[in-house]
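Quick one: structure tokens for this chain, please?
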Amino acid sequence: MNDAIVTTERLLMRRAEVRDLGALHAILANADAMRYWSTPPHATLHQTREWLKDMMASPETESDDFVVEFQGRVIGKAGFWRLPEIGYIFHPDIWGRGLAFECLSALIARVLTRFDADALLADVDPRNTGSLRLLDKLGFVETRRATATLLVGDAWCDSVYLELSRENWRRR
């Protein structure tokens, strides 16, 4: 099996390619998808192109990040842009189908069996209740909260920090 490809019953996760630009831009320019992201929605294709270049250039020793396909269509990105922190974004039209849980379960298993990480981390806007529920279902536990941690556009956002230890993951 190609180690740059991860599959589940319904999903294909693979490394990003230049051909993903349009599909990723449709997600990164979507206000609903980007509501709790670390930047405002992408205003231009150029902005997404630079983001995609960064994703593709991430060193394999520090990153394990994937484009996610469902039924042959790119629906998001998920993985670890900088290990051990998990990150993901999906197009809103696929929310509520269990696809994020399916995807992240597979990628968490991959990282915890291939990389030397005692725990995986997440930083979530506390208003993002869907993401907090997802991470809880995956076994992440809240470790702390902080205010005004990230300036997105002209608004400060707070953070909920979560962790999934290797030990807790093995017990699941």
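The first helix runs from residue 21 to 28.
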